[in-house]
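Could someone model magnesium ion with this protein?
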Amino acid sequence: MRPERLNPLFATSAGLKGVGAGIMRPLEKLGLTRVRDLVYHLPDRFVQRRAVADLDEASVGEQIVVRLTMREYRAGGSARAPFRVHAEDAAGNVCALTYFGRNAGWARKQLPLGESRWIAGRLDQFGQTLQIVHPEHVADDGAVALGTLCEPVYPLSEGLTQGRIAALVGQALAQVPDLAEWIEPGLKARTGWPDWKPALLEAHRGEHKLARDRLAYDELLANSLALMLVRDANRARAGQPLRGDGHLRARLSLPFALTGAQRRAIAEIEGDMAQGSPMLRLLQGDVGAGKTVVALEAMLIAVEAGAQAALLAPTEILARQHHATLTRMAAGTGVTIALLTGRDKGRQRESILMGLLDGSIQICVGTHAIFQDAVAYRDLALVVIDEQHRFGVGQRLMLTQKGQNSPQGRRTPHCLAMTATPIPRTLTLAQYGEMDVSRLDEMPPGRQPIDTRVVAVERMDDVVGALERHLATGQQAYWVCPMVRENETVDLAAAEARFAQLQVRFGGDAVLVHGQLRPEVKDAAMERFAAGQARLLVATTVIEVGVDVPNATLMVIEQAERFGLAQLHQLRGRVGRGAEKSTCLLLRGEALSEVARERLALMRETQDGFRLAEEDLRLRGGGELLGTRQSGDTPFRVASLEQIAELLPLAHDDARLLVERDGGLTGERGEAARQLLYLFERDYGVQLLRGG
Ligand code: ADP
Ligand code: MG
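Reply:
Sure, complex below.
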């Protein structure tokens, strides 16, 4: 249960003064449904204003606060012309306060003729006269005006104003309790970080780096601590030591020799699986690095030891593909591999369920369906999760707990997670810090580099011509259109229009796949393409994950500048899988930002996913101080990419020390750390504590 002290922070924003249904919607959009969220809604930047005695002291373009006396109203000639108030400063300079739209009535009321007011805003020039357009603040009281000299600028959504959000944040901050310190005293002394509550208040008041760093560190520490507790709890669980005698693996007929990296990873996995505590290992390997065969070897170890293994894929398509590949590779072993997806019904499903229960099926491949309550295994000892990045740590936890089932009693299966997303080391720590990591950092030999070119979109005709010649050789191709959530309707229309256009040229050879098609339609199109019946696959980014069609050797990516490096890399990995040389054409629009230009150049230069991931982080994290916080590709909302890079290793070590010293979090600092876990909603960590 959440400590009582934190309750005010978890109260709904709807309870704040002045919050009605109308404003809740934009608040929800920003994820600000509770007091806690508002408190952590930190400003993107601050407006700095200067108080001046008169306008002679100020320069055009500057944000100022100045006292002016209202002299004259000037309504414009036409209805659309602005309303102007001519005002005078202490030195007799005239400045127009300009209001567009229907603000005249409001302006007359705020700015009575003959009276003086404090005005805050940006000084501009309009022809020969000075003006301030839509002053940010009008105040009677100098103290109020001077309070706006440093003003936060918050991330907004439609329906909110800076004033509204600032007022709500203010109310929320008034409810912040004092909490005991969870940061290690030595670190705090060394860094000079403020206490938690003062840090929160300061972070809203100005650019206080120490306060911001402290708050970011809190978030990172909470994350690391929860991961450490998961790791700790996992170690304490009873697993099933598995030793394979190699008889099945010896019968695998692979058409290639394993790479050194693959052999290392298999040895690490074999070592883990022989232990009494369950394995929790991440297999990180670029697209095409050969993770599947590593997974198969791991599963065969389990089967050799007389147990079962399951492989969980994120989509139906991938489950089918894995099933086909594994069945082919394991043909000589006599192992039975079943496919179970949500779409299997009736007799066939019944017979698979029977086989899993009586052990006649040794390996099960499927989607989430393989962990439904109705699915019981005779002795499930290994769970492999492919494309791990779609699962958060909380979900991973659930999966392994559900997997508990063996004749010897409750045992936690070994878990091998696989991800094809090469992420930088710091982010690996943030997302998979509870796991041991094996990296496939060596590609199978004989891969031809993919010829990557950047082509201006004006050369579309040439591109389509090249595509036609390519298809005429009997090879296949992908055509990728961008699709982002904020722009979904437009993007979808563009993709459909492109498909229609290509279909005129290529007829039934072309198929379209995108996220809004029904799964059956999508799968049917994918299957036609995989079988070689369709030769051009036009798609939004749904092909990103794991599809394997070696005969597809050309990829065209439209509006490539709109994709991140990591995503481009993932996409490009769909080609270059066969013996033929592959090409990737990155179509770019006319106006490119500096960063976009650099990204495309990098794509041309290297195919090393880990390098691209590090560069991606650098390009996004570099220039801007904030603003990447809500991009959603880190599990953090407070910490920026730079803060993650700088502070995460520290938080990780600190979390480990704390758990080693006080695994139950019962000491004084441990208690404080529990509150931290609740504060950042990593309370699955606390639940593990209670479970003992
Ligand atoms: P991913 O890591 O993306 O899942 P896959 O397991 O699908 O990669 O492997 C990509 C391709 O490389 C497959 O066709 C696979 O058979 C092949 N492959 C895997 N390991 C090797 C190897 N050591 N030598 C040559 N080819 C390999
Ligand atoms: Mg794969």
